[in-house]
Structures are given as C-alpha cells and as structure tokens.
Amino acid sequence: MEKLYTPINTLKSVDDNIWIVDGQSISFYGAPYTTRMTIIKLANGDLFCHSPIALTEDLKQQIQSLGTVKHLVSPNWIHYAYIPEWSKVFPNTISWASPNVRERAKKYKLDIDFDEDLSDQAEEPWKQEIDQLIAHGSTIHSEVVFFHKASKTLILTDLIENFEKHKIPFWFKVLAKWAGILDPDGKAPIDMRFSFKNGRAQLKPAVEKMIDWGPEKVILAHGRWYPENGVRELKRAFSWVL
Length: 242
Prior knowledge:
- By secondary structure, this protein is α/β, with parallel strands linked by helices.
- The protein has a single domain (11-237), classed as Metallo-beta-lactamase, Chain A.
- The chain has helices at 57-64, 83-89, 101-107, 170-179, 190-195, 200-212, 230-237, and strands at residues 11-15, 18-28, 31-41, 46-50, 68-73, 94-97, 116-117, 130-135, 143-148, 153-155, 217-219.
- Helix 3 links the parallel strand 6 (94-97) and strand 7 (116-117).
- The longest helix has 13 residues, at 200-212.
C-alpha cells in the first residue's frame, strides 16, 4: 500500500507566502498517485491555487485564514478535476484553463466552466510576482510552468515525477523504475519523453528558461519534491532534452 505525505490536507510552508498541501492518492490508469497542490498569496491578498486537490472542511478553513481564494489554476490537461468543487465553495473565483484541458474535461463529462486561458506569458493578475511559460513540443502533453520570484520556487506538475520506493507498492516500483520516475532520478515518464521525440527543439528553450530563472526549490505534484538544489535537479531531470 502506498504511503501518503502526512499530514495530509494541511498547509505546509515552503517559504514566505507560498505553501503546499499534500492530499489523498488517486488512481491514474490503475497506479496510485499522491496529490499535491501549491498555494501562493499575492500582494493584494488573493490566493493563486495551483492544481487544487480534494477539498475538506478543515482545509477550507485553513485556506480562508490565508486570504481570498481567487485563481484556480489547471496547469495541464490532467490536473483539473477538483476545480468545479472549489469554484462552488469559494465565490468570485477565476478558473484558468491549460492547453487541451477543456477537451479532456468534456471527454470525461466533467462540467467545468473555465473563465480564462493560460498563455506563454505571465497573466496580468500575478505577472509582478509569478512568471510562467508553456512547455511545448509534445504530441500529447502541454504543461504550464510557474516561477514564484520572491521565493525562487519553480512549480512543475508532471514534467518531473519522483516516486519514493518506500511509499509505493512493489509492483509500482518496478513500473516506476522502467518509466524513469523513481527517486532519486525522477524525470518525465517514458511515454511523455517519447511524445517529445520530434519536439525537443521546442521544449529545450523552455527548459533553458526554467534554469535561467535560477530556482532554488522545485515543487512537483507527484513524489518527493526538491527544497534545495533546484537548478542542479533540473539539469539532471532534463538531461534528455539538454
């Protein structure tokens, strides 16, 4: 049985005005994937919520103590399922769509009324505090990457996955090692890397820009994230591109 990143559904400080929240695991094509969201408090008190997880009453109260939930962000076409729940609970939010997420939600008959689309440039509400880009070049996967300038924290979703052996079932260890997503050498899973086979020239500038931002920390959605040595971890994980 997989082990969660306890305590779950609890705000964990990453740096000033930035937190992660680890949640329950979900089944993704039969594999257990732990969930993790990131919350950034903007200067005006609005909260930027990256890849919202399942909402509990206790978590709701913790988040309300931080500020006003405003931006619900789907960073890629897979991470979106809990946005409708959050938009119902928190009034006057803006739901931000990543590339292809509308089509994915429609395919699975999930009713999401996205308000805005994410682009290759930082959006007006947060451009002074958070930078962003879209990792292009894959036949299946586009991901919006964010960089919190003040804390020098890069926020990824599935471009790096880094599952720890002691937290996953034996059968998944074998699969994770084959896919190249086993700690300490986590990277993009093998099917995603293959999808960039003819698009590495498009992806490389995005990776180089991530490195140029000089992140000290790199948050991942799945597995152990990197609280230090961010640039070194990026160069290692994206050696297949660089």
